[in-house]
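Sequence only, no structure available. Ideas?
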Amino acid sequence: MWSRPGQMERRKVALKVFYLGWMYEGFAKQKRTRQTVEGHLHYAILKAKLTPSIESSEYSRGGRTDTGVCAYGQVVSLLLRTRKTEKGQTEIPYTLAINRHLPRSIRVLSWAYVPASFSARFSCKHRVYRYYLPQGSLDVASMRRGASLFVGKHCFRHFCVKSKEDERYERTVDRAEILSSGEGMCVFEVVSRGFLYRQVRCMAGILLLVGEGKRQPEYIAELLSLSAAEKKPGYQPAPPQNLVLYDCVYDGVCFETAPAECERLGRDLAEEHLEKQVEEAVLRGSVEYLGGLCGGV
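Reply:
I predicted one. Tokens follow.
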């Protein structure tokens, strides 16, 4: 649990991270760009002097999200500087220390002590993704039947984009369902220990075809029954901006939430939501105006 490079006492800590990924080029740090969530997070951790280097910190991430994908409950783990080496000492306020160096769209919401063997990637028991869909004229009942077919152990070769990191295409989906949401939205929620590259977006893409009546729910069972060697059917993964890494779940990890940071984020999001509502009202007004204009011609 403890590490001591030089005079810095460090302890393994898990951080729960929220981010709106629309303006970032994915979560994982990249050499070609600085505009990644992880790049900003690493900068903030180093700026707060919580570790001498990321390379020496046993850093691990719970999930790797694409460009434009958001997360409510991403988790990373690493060795961080600690003050609590003796009873009675107060720990470093990790959330505040890191957040003061982060943009408003990225926030550390909570943290937890974890064992030395803990890895945000390999210790994760379940990853929960949500894909948000405007309900409109979608056939939600058919989508629900289709989503249920994903549950269980299957070959998902035809529900992913081929990646060098994925040598096996078999995955077990613990739950897949269409949930009702407010404001004319529905949500595709899927839970599994692990996913293939762009698997959730591919699953959502097929469910959209089902909802639009372009495919029957049974088409999902057909794709799951195909062998990995067979040619992948031509369809597009659903767009990334509707996808959220909703949570990463671990056994025995109790995250300590920072209420002040959550309240501050809540206020920021409420302001942004209000701005979006105004934009939506302007767009709706423009549609009504054009409708009247065209109707009067």
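The radius of gyration is 22 Å.
Hope that gets you unstuck.
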